Amino acid sequence: MRFSVRFALTAFLLTLPMVVSPPFFFGSMATSAAQLQNSAFNGPTGIASCGSYVWVTNVSGNSVTELNALTGALVKIIGRASNELTEPMGIAANGTDLWVANLSGNSVTEINCGTGASIRNITSGSLNAPVAVAVGGSKVWVVNQAHKNDVKGNLISNSSSVTAYSTKFSSLDKSIDGTNANGFNGSSGVSVSGGKVWITNANGNSVTELDAKSGKVVRVVGGGIGEFNWPMGVAAIGADIWVENLNGNSLTEIDGSTGSVLRVITGDGLHGPDAICDLGNEIWVANLYGNSVTVLNARNGALIRVIRSKSDGFSAPTGIIGQGSTIWVTNQWSNSVTELVASNGSLERIIN
Fold it and tell me: Which domain holds residue 119?
């Protein structure tokens, strides 16, 4: 039996101040080694769609699982025979390729969506505990969560970093170290939209906006504005930016043009929100601590429904994606993926 070797983010606050650890559980207390060997998942965390397939990173299994988006059937599991995927977490697609952030490997793996073959494993740039990845235009943006240390071994505040690569050549485009000006402090999430890059800083309780072309800071939203409380997930939805506050049990909506805070949403079943996606005019939020999913109206933030039936199989949900007419949710604690019907939130199937 494999027990969790990392716990929720809040547990780390007691021993590692100034360091944010992803709010993910590694492994499962409910799954034996034999079951894991035959399972499609082992610590499923990140999720992305590419073509007619859904891809899931397995942070404990050092692998990526490919599923048929129409049937939910297992297509293949890649990475078990190689050493490229090491605690893979964030994953993103650009239509032809997948990009996977490897937390302990300090690398990014590029995978062909059509074949599942590894194209290359990238280690250049300031990769230091990469946890999140997003594709925008001709660039792949990677958020590196770890801080740097001074000569005495003390942690340096605002020293997380961001790395960008060319999607065409996978060459290093820019490496941006954390500074007091850009506020990279336990950076954990990234989203790209409209020539802007938005990065959540969990330790700094802020969100940084970068110009996607130059990498220069446009603004840092925080300092009590937006009621950020361990902001983790972030998504550009329409003209606005939505940020999940893991410990604040809330969502903050930001105007994508001005950076001003439009509203902060609490209640509505939000309990440890840590993954977010949109489908049509709806926002879907996975609640890590609540073992539930909240659905909101993207136009006004009004609650549509909260999905939290035990039959849906939510167990430490850490990833969510909309694909066609369905929503896919990764359940890290139960080593499974839940597929929902987007129109009414009903259960389509549980895959394990």
Answer: 9-351
267 Cβ neighbours under 8 A, 6+ residues apart:
none
Query: Which among 334, 300, 305, 301 is positioned nearest to 317, based on CA atoms?
Result: 334
Token pair recorded at residue 279: 């489908």
| Cβ density class 260-281: b for 16+ within 10 Å, e for less | ebeebbeebbbbbbbbbbbbee
CA distance 70 to 239: 30
As a whole number of angstroms, the distance between CA 299 and CA 242 comes to: 12
Which tokens go with 255? 């105007």
What pTM value is reported for the model?
0.89
Checking if the pLDDT of 171 tops 60, the result is yes
- What 8-state DSSP symbol labels residue 56? E
Token pair of 168 as six digits: 């065409």
Q: Give the residue among 191, 187, 188 at the shortest CA–CA distance from 178.
A: 187
Q: CA angle, 129 as apex, 126 and 135 as ends, to 5°?
A: 70
User: What is the CATH number for 141?
Assistant: 2.130.10.10
Residue of 247, 243, 271 whose CA lies nearest to 21 = 247
Whole-number Å distance between alpha carbons of 262 and 240: 9
- Would you list the DSSP string of 254-314? EETTT--EEEEEE-TT-SSEEEEEEETTEEEEEETTTTEEEEEETTT--EEEEE--GGG--
Split at pLDDT 50, 70, 90, the class of 1 is: very low
Paired with 77 in beta bridges are 65
Residue the block writes with tokens 């293949």: 76
- 226/134: higher pLDDT: 134
CA R_g for the chain: 18
Q: In total, how many domains does the chain have?
A: 1
Residue 4 belongs to a domain? no
